[in-house]
Design goal:
Radius of gyration: 34 Å
Order of helices and strands: HHHHHHHHEEEEE
Strand content: 5-15%
Number of strands: 5
Shape: elongated
Structural class: alpha+beta
CATH architecture of one domain: Orthogonal Bundle
Distance between the termini: 40 Å
Length: about 400
Amino acid sequence: MSGRLLRWACAGSALSALVTLAPATHAAPGPAPGPGERPVAELLTDLQRLYRQAEESTETYNATDEKLKDQRRRVADLNRRRAAADAAARDGRGAAGRLARQQYRHGSMEISSYVRLLLARNPQGALDQRHVIRRASAGRAATAARLTADARTADGLAAQAQQALTTQESLARRQKQARDSVRSRLKEVEELLASLTPEQLAALGRAEDDGAADAQRELVASGALGAPDARRAPSARGERALRYAVEQIGKPYVWGAEGPSSYDCSGLTQRAWRVGGWDVPRTSQEQWARLPRVPLRELRPGDLVVYFPGATHVALYLGDGLVVHAPRPGARVKVSPLAANPVLGAVRPDPEGSAVAGWRPPRLPSGAREGSDAGWGGAFAGRPSPTPSRN
C-alpha cells in the first residue's frame, strides 16, 4: 500500500469521547476557553499541527542549507577561475605592451619586407628573414586574440560570480526565514505545554499512544504489510544502515542535526545510509522524490518509510511493523510502530541490493521503545525546552 493512512481519522471517535480537563477551582467561563478547559482531542490536534509545521520548516531549512552549501562551493570555484582569468589577462596585456614598445622602437617590419627582398645581397637570407617576419606577425595576432579571449573570460566569470553571490545571499535569507519559522512553531509548542498540568500531559500522551496503536492494528489487519510471518532480509548496505540507526537509539532530536550526537529525522536516515555505503538526499522530501518507491507489503529492513502528505518525516524500517526514527523535538531516537505517524509510502535506496543470507535483526538496547513519539512526555519537566539553539 502506498497511500496515506490518516492516523487520527481512525481514532477520532475515541478522542472525541475524552472529557474536558478543567481545573476544579475554575471560575465562570469567559469568551474563549484556556488550555486547561479544552478537550484533550483539541489540544492533541493543536500540538500535532504545531509539530508538523515545525518539521515542515525544519525540512525547508535543511533543503535550503544544502542549496546554500552548494552555492558557496560554486561561488568559491568561480572566484578561483576568475582569479586565474584575471592573471592570464594581465599577462596578455603585458605581452601586448612589449610588442607595442618593440614596434615603436623599430618601426613596422611588414612595410619593408618586400623591399628588403629586392635589395638583399643574399636573396635566400632575405626569404628566410621574411619567414621570420611572418611568424612574428602571426605571433602578434595570436597575442592579441589571446588577450581579447582572456579579457572576455574574466568579464564573464566576474558576472557569473556576482550572480552566484546574489543567489547565495537570497538562499541565506530563505534559510533565516525557515530557521525563524522553526523557532516560532516550537515556541508555541513550549508555551502550550507549559500551560498544562501533569495530568493533562499524561492524558495527551495516552491519547496519542491509543491513536497510534489503533492505526497500527488497522494497518496490520488490512494486509498492507504483507503476510504477518513474512520476514524479509535487508541488503548488505541496508543492514549496515539499520545497525547504525539502532546504535543511535537514545540520542536527542535536534532540528537540523546530522549526528553523531543528535539528529533530526532525515539527518538520521541520511547518515545511517551513508555509513551503510550509499548516499541519499538530505531531506525527507528529496528522499521521497528521488529514491525508488517500494510497496509497504514488500518492505525490507533498512527501507525508508515516509510520512505525512508533504513527506515531512522519515524513518528506517526495522521489520515486524516497527521503525527506528528521530520523532520530534523533546524526544529521542527510538523504536516505534510503523503507523505512529500517517504513512505516505516507502522508498528503497538500493533496489538492486541482494538480500543478506542468514539475516538476524539487531539486538535492541534496553528501553528502545520507551518514551512517547509525541515529544512531550516528560520533556518539559526538568529537561531543556525544545527551543532550538542552532544559529
